[in-house]
Amino acid sequence: MPVLTRRPVYLLLSGCLFAASFAIAAEPSVVTVGTAHSALTLTVAADGRLYELGYGRATAAVAAPRRPPAREDEFHPPAGNGYLLEPALQAVHADGNTSTELAYLSHETAADPRDANVVVTRIKLKDPAYPFFATLCFRAYQAEDVIEQWAEISHDEPAPVVLSRFASSAPVVKADSYWLTQFQGNYMREAGLVEERLAPGLKVLDSKLGVRAQQMRNPSFLLALDGPAREETGEVFGGTLAWSGSFQFAFDLDWDNRLRALCGINPFGEEYRLARGKTFTTPAMLWTWSAAGKGQVSRNFHRWARRYGIRDGDKPRPVLLNNWEATHMDFDEKKIVALFDGAKDLGVDLFLLDDGWFGNNHPRDTDRAGLGEWQVNKKKLPHGLSYLADEAAKRGIKFGIWLEPEMTNPASDLFVAHPDWVIRQPKRELQFGRNQLILDLTRPEAKEFTWKVIDDTFAPNPGIAYVKWDCNRYVTQPGSPYLPPDEQQHLLIDYQWALYDVMHRMAEKYPAIMAMVCAGGSGRVDYGALKYFHSFWPSDNTDPLQRIYIQWGFGHFFPAETIAAHVTDMGHRPVKFACDVALTGAFGVDRDVAKMTAEEKQTITASIALYKNSLRDLIAQGDLYRLESPYEGKRAALDYVAPDRSRAVLFVYQLGEAAFGPVKPRGLDPAKRYRVRELNLPAGARSRLALDNQVVDGATLMAGGLASPLRRAVESAVIEFIAEP
Ligand code: GLA
User: Fold this and answer.
1) What CATH number does residue 540 fall under?
2) SS3 for 422?
3) What pTM was computed for the model?
4) What does the alpha-carbon distance between residue 636 and residue 131 come to, in Å, rounded to a whole number?
5) What is the whole-number distance in angstroms between the Cα of residue 690 and the centre of ligand 1?
6) Of 111, 270, 544, 579, which residue is least crowded by CB atoms under 10 Å?
7) What is the domain range of residue 190?
8) For 650-708, what is each residue's pLDDT tens digit?
């Protein structure tokens, strides 16, 4: 239902076009994009432009200012006609004009007819001098305090318009100081927190990798106002871009201490010639605002993700046994079936067969061959995939498979037949990453081939219940033998949308097959991809000590049930410690059961039973409180609290040798009385927790804490709180 009636008209004065307004109201109107606790307020000023009045706490009715706003407060500012800072949009028009002007045309705000929790706003802007349009689109998720924003750009000019900036969202934030936290690293050390105070000028966080683009940095950040981000107090914004390709966040702090956060596809090397009548849609930027620290930012995103951002947010994730670290590509049917027996003994739900099962002319025995040749390797698996799925079913477990469908090795039938189906450039020697090349999904045949890899694997093997979709290299030579010379820079954008099409098709045709997104670890962890998946593989580093940091990082934006966490022997840590770390994610095991000691097997079996029978739902659906950061001391602790606060579970990990005070849970109901119990104790061991099996009220527990039962490095404890009836 449109609520704003004011419509500017464009008058021809002294040979120039000016935006003017025929609105009778003396006050410019205010447009509010609001959630339960936050609001983004905008106004249309007398010059016809859209300006931001503020983003943050929702306050009672905001009045439009009487004085004209500063040009630096323009919302979604375009480049070239008087705006001096980083623009949200930059275009060269068909006649060569390098400037764009955006004036308000109309807007609509209405509840989503399918979901009363979502308010949709669309604000249509137009260049007064050109048939060039930008529609700013919002979905405001009321209960979760999340605002999603994207832009749709189109034109009716006689020739293509060249877009060189296309932010999804670029709000202005105002405070005394700004503290930015990024989540960066590299293969095996992903999602590390780095926080800094922003200084005047431009701070850019980005990725230029195109595909598997998030390997060195996740497209998410925290922005704390007036001091470093704290867990439970202070104003903090969280931002995360739903895009798996190259991204750019540009934080522009101006001379008046005003900060604009420009978020979107990385414009570097991605200039886009937009044809007449076509629409350029940016990916969505997701924002949340909290006045209760970054803990609330995480809880907002987690609640949003379960309801809107991931597949089957309310379904339990299966406990997996994966064979990658146990066998790598060196296996055969007998070995795999033997692993099923072990899987059954442990009590896992599903066996996931990893890389190495395909390729005949170029068998996938090493990472030098086979990608692109997706027929079952007859030597290793003579009876095919359905035989394996049946053998697994006989033991009461489900069966899943690894795929890397958009890649090819030069040693494969595919590449031999179609050397021009890959991303490559003329006159340059081919560069490889893990000996492989990326299929150019802008080419329809290559895109269809990618879909067929999936369809031809799933359709004849109805026993397949799970897929791990991997992606093991990034782009170093962005070029497409398919696209015309003047559209070469479309490659990385069009590739991404084509990839999402294939992922979408998979989710639509095979809704019962659960899916994990992997990209050599976390190269594809974002809400653009996660829409089509149930979980992600955060890192090939499965040393539980390192995983505490990695899972800590991702947990800021992604809920526990999406974070695959497997027990392995990496780092040779105590198996209980490895299990206690894996219990805070989508639990799995990546070990050969036959090679485990009796104690290891017993501990893993008990952890799986505890997870499946008691903790899985609480961790998946509960609210996360980060209690002690591994970055700040030699201990880490976190808890998950059921939405009705009837139950909670706390995990504490000793990272090094040091004496410690009590660990204090958060999120409990102060008035409720909880029975405290230590869980997952080694067989026969007695708890060292002083409060074990005692009943204590939430207020006392949260204020005084529990004396830690831990004594040494790499010890851990799992402590449960159950409210007394
Ligand atoms: C990547 C993944 C691993 C494994 C291998 C298989 O490295 O991150 O988990 O699947 O590929 O080649």
Assistant:
1) 3.20.20.70
2) strand
3) 0.96
4) 57
5) 43
6) 111
7) 4-309
8) 999 999 988 679 999 999 999 999 999 999 999 999 999 999 999 999 999 999 999 99
